[in-house]
Design brief:
- By secondary structure, this protein is of the alpha+beta class.
- Helix content is about 35%, strand content about 20%.
- The strands form four sheets. Strands 4-3-2-1-5 form a five-stranded antiparallel beta sheet, covered by helices on one side. A two-stranded antiparallel sheet has the order 6-7. Strands 8-9 form a two-stranded antiparallel sheet.
- The longest helix has 16 residues.
- About 25% of the residues are buried.
Length: about 325
């Protein structure tokens, strides 16, 4: 790194900020931020990284960057995210940034068709591309393949897993209803394994290993789900803004009168395993009208969850389970 060259230097809030080197010391560099001319600060040499000549340039694969380091990788992902490109490659690894809203046409039928049989990198980065490559590797190598989906709470692990399943069953399904049954099993699994956290209304609180079974013609014919690492402590205690597993609230809200009497159900604030946390129902305006007032906690009567899609699903499956 030389004087006058653009670099990424550490920033307490943004992670890194763009600046210029104005002096080189023994172990530190004197940096002048580009957005604060005249001001300088010292940064450890090991925490300063060279920047691309065009910091607004975006590439599909971070490996295509001239300088690949933590700062340039994060900047490329950020530039892409601001243009609704939420997926970015690092070779055959896919980085996904949750936009928290629906990006138009990102997962539609036409998009599914476009990725079928395409080599990785031929089309823009997408979870469908990873799913298709995995399928083709399985077919060519005659070996089982795995896709690891990892990330922090709210990153989008559950949704991206659904997209992988949807792609494989839609593109390489056997034409039987087993394809739809595999995909539709997710809400039921989520009822027993997902819960509201501070950061995510539908956070998976358990690990999940999903097997997709193919026949000799490489068509989807079945599946098997093993769940493990269930967060058992959540059953006993929750923080003020978090809930227990969805199933408890769904039963309270949607169980029939016979089930209610048999299981001695009431409003969530009547139960010690629920009332120490958030007891609000996920209810939209329409589904809220279907819940009897006697089954609502005081908190539920005053407020409703902000996630309308989850609200409708929650009550619909409460009725199904009952």
């Amino acid at each position: 790194m030389e004087d006058g060259k653009p670099v990424w230097a550490p920033h307490p809030a943004d992670g890194f900020q763009l600046g210029m080197i104005v002096d080189i010391g023994a172990d530190t560099l004197t940096i002048e931020p580009l957005n604060q001319r005249g001001k300088t600060f010292l940064a450890p040499m090991s925490q300063v990284f060279p920047a691309e000549d065009d910091v607004n340039k975006l590439v599909d694969d971070n490996c295509s960057l001239m300088y690949l380091n933590e700062a340039t990788l994060l900047n490329n992902v950020r530039v892409r995210y601001n243009k609704d490109h939420i997926y970015t490659y690092v070779a055959n690894i896919l980085i996904a940034v949750n936009p928290y809203y629906d990006v138009p046409k990102l997962y539609g039928p036409d998009t599914i068709k476009s990725y079928r049989g395409k080599s990785l990198g031929t089309l823009p980065p997408h979870v469908y591309a990873i799913a298709d490559k995995t399928y083709r590797d399985m077919k060519v190598l005659k070996m089982s393949q795995s896709i690891i989906v990892s990330g922090e709470s709210g990153a989008g692990k559950t949704e991206n897993t659904k997209f992988v399943l949807r792609y494989l069953t839609t593109t390489y399904g056997s034409g039987q209803d087993i394809d739809e049954r595999i995909v539709e099993a997710n809400p039921l699994l989520e009822a027993f394994g997902n819960a509201k956290t501070v950061r995510n209304n539908n956070s998976s609180r358990f690990g999940k290993f999903v097997e997709i079974h193919f026949n000799e013609k490489n068509a989807v014919v079945g599946g098997f789900v093993s769940h493990y690492l269930l967060e058992k402590s959540r059953i006993c205690t929750q923080s003020n803004e978090e809930r227990n597993y969805h199933i408890f609230y769904r039963l309270c809200a949607g169980a029939s009168e016979d089930i209610k009497k048999k299981l001695h159900l009431d409003s969530p604030d009547s139960f010690r395993y629920l009332n120490r946390g958030c007891t609000r129902y996920f209810a939209s305006k329409d589904s809220d009208k279907q819940i009897m007032q006697s089954r609502k906690s005081p908190e539920s009567k005053k407020t409703k969850a902000e996630n309308g899609t989850l609200c409708d699903e929650s009550f619909r499956y409460a009725i199904t389970i009952s």
